[in-house]
Inverse folding.
């Protein structure tokens, strides 16, 4: 149900993202999904990877500031309005979404969305009650 | 031009005799009225009877900024608060302000010394004196103001900021003598040029610039761009405020008003007094102050003293323009800043102080302050909003402690250079000395 995302602090400097990704590549980490929130001076790189623990260790060893964040993954039909429906359900129950990003999986007609909310358990309950399918794990 | 010719051109021997008399009386008064001083003197084995001439000064223990902090706020005052009519304050090394007080008599002397300063810079009752030092706890504004009124000039208390309005006032009121920080003078010059104002419409003739370090090149630039003569003035609130020493028309060193202060140059490491001409730390004893007569106060400014006769005819000893500090104090936009103040703010945001570096620069003649702070797990969040909140909280705290706006930049761990031994906390790109 709950997916471990790793969040990485990254300064806005030329080549820095490439360097971080090199560290992950060197440790044979596979990235499933990625999003970056950026400001003028820094960004936060958010990653879903095949092995979060190993990825965190590898980055920490290089002195990178990294933290684990628990997020929810939702499976969607790759069709218009699917994400709007999920967000409407959450909004009706006053669950606000801090951020979200989407990715497409290998299976056909299926999209996935990562949701970062304050209260994961509450959100999971509500999504379940509304028949929205959650990602159990990411492979 | 002198404000007080008799005193300002007094023979050196008479000055030294006057200083000796005033010193002896001052030490007696301080011993009787200020407990921390009495205790220091007892610990050093000195009694007021031992202090009869200027030569005896070296027997007395030094006073440090820390003493003001330890006795915050009024513990070193030699008069009851009832006799105090003004209180100013400047930054301390951490947290607490350095507080200074004045009796009415102290203010009269301050006005007199600023009157000497402004007169030496060409001021008179015919002048319109434009005071663009900050008014408030900072001594700059009110100090210059008092002297300007004493000489009978039309005094304009503009204070700092709002450059456009400053220029309008200069044009409309016919300001003839400008008092501000040298960097602000250049900023004004730039703004005047940018606005396309015909400089012949300005009535400025001279300026008294101080409260921050500046170079000879800056002086030439101010003089050329504003078409004025630029005079250096020196002061510190602990000793009095602006007007402790000032430049005359000869512009070769700043005359110290020796009828009120005794200046010494010492070796900052050993405390040994150094002869005239040698460079060391400047130390002041206030021999006439009633409320806060500091004894052998360590200014941390590096300077030297010149006792040879000056072309202007004044006999009071001159000090050279301060050439640095013996501590890590910075002067940013005229405000004294200690790196420890910034460190103590950062400490409030985590269990341990993060690695940080202070970057001071000058852009368009105005000082800029940036604090780079290394990101740590305690500061990090996966949400931009929370990190930005942290940045703005740090910015607000620093601004409230320093009274200066700072730009805060969070940087990656280990990106700030580590140095062997003492951490390097400041990069000053201004090249002022």
């Amino acid at each position: 149900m709950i997916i471990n995302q790793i969040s990485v602090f990254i300064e806005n400097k030329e080549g820095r993202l490439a360097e971080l990704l090199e560290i992950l590549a060197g440790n044979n980490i596979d990235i499933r999904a990625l999003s970056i929130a950026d400001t003028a001076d820094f960004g936060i790189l958010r990653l879903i990877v095949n092995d979060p623990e190993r990825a965190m260790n590898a980055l920490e060893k290089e002195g990178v500031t990294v933290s684990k964040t628990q997020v929810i993954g939702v499976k969607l039909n790759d069709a218009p309005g699917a994400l709007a429906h999920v967000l409407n359900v959450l909004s009706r129950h006053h669950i606000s979404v801090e951020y979200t990003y989407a990715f497409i999986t290998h299976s056909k007609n299926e999209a996935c969305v990562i949701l970062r909310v304050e209260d994961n358990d509450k959100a999971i309950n509500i999504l379940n009650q509304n028949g929205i399918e959650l990602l159990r794990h990411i492979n | 031009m002198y404000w007080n010719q008799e005193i300002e051109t007094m023979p050196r021997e008479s000055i030294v005799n006057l200083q000796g008399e005033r010193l002896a009386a001052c030490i007696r008064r301080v011993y009787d009225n200020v407990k921390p001083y009495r205790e220091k003197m007892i610990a050093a084995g000195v009694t007021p009877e031992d202090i009869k001439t200027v030569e005896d000064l070296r027997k007395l223990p030094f006073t440090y900024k820390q003493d003001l902090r330890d006795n915050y706020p009024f513990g070193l005052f030699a008069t009851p608060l009832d006799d105090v009519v003004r209180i100013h304050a400047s930054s301390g090394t951490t947290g607490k302000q350095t507080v200074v007080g004045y009796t009415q008599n102290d203010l009269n002397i301050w006005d007199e010394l600023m009157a000497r300063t402004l007169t030496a810079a060409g001021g008179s009752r015919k002048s319109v004196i434009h005071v663009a030092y900050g008014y408030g706890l900072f001594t700059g504004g009110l100090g210059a103001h008092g002297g300007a009124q004493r000489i009978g000039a039309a005094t304009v208390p503009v204070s700092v900021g709002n450059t456009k309005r400053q220029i309008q006032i200069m044009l409309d009121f016919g300001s003839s003598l400008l008092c501000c920080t040298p960097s602000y003078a250049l900023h004004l010059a730039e703004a005047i040029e940018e606005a396309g104002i015909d400089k012949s419409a300005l009535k400025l003739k001279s300026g008294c610039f101080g409260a921050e370090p500046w170079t000879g090149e800056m002086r030439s630039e101010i003089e050329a761009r504003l078409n004025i003569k630029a005079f250096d003035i020196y002061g510190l609130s602990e000793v009095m405020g602006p007007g402790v020493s000032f430049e005359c028309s000869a512009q070769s060193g700043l005359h110290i008003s020796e009828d009120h202060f005794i200046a010494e140059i010492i070796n900052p490491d050993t405390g040994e007094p150094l002869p005239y001409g040698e460079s060391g730390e400047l130390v002041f004893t206030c021999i006439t102050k009633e409320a806060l007569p500091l004894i052998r106060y360590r200014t941390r400014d590096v300077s030297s003293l010149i006792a040879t006769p000056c072309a202007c005819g004044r006999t009071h000893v001159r000090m050279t323009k301060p050439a640095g500090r013996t501590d890590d104090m910075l002067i940013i936009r005229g405000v004294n800043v200690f790196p420890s103040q910034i460190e103590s703010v950062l400490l409030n945001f985590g269990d341990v102080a993060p690695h940080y570096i202070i970057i001071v620069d000058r852009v368009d003649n105005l000082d800029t302050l940036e604090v780079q702070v290394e990101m740590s797990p305690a500061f990090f969040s996966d949400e931009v909003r929370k990190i930005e909140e942290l940045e703005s909280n740090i910015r607000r705290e620093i601004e409230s402690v320093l009274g200066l706006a700072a730009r805060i930049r969070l940087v990656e761990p280990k990106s700030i250079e580590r140095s062997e031994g003492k951490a390097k906390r400041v990069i000053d790109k201004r090249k002022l000395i």
The interface with chain B takes residues 5, 7, 9-11, 16, 37-39, 41-42, 44, 46, 63-65, 67, 69, 98-99, 116 of chain A (CB under 8 Å). The radius of gyration of chain A is 16 Å. The CA atoms of residues 53 and 139 of chain A lie 15 Å apart.
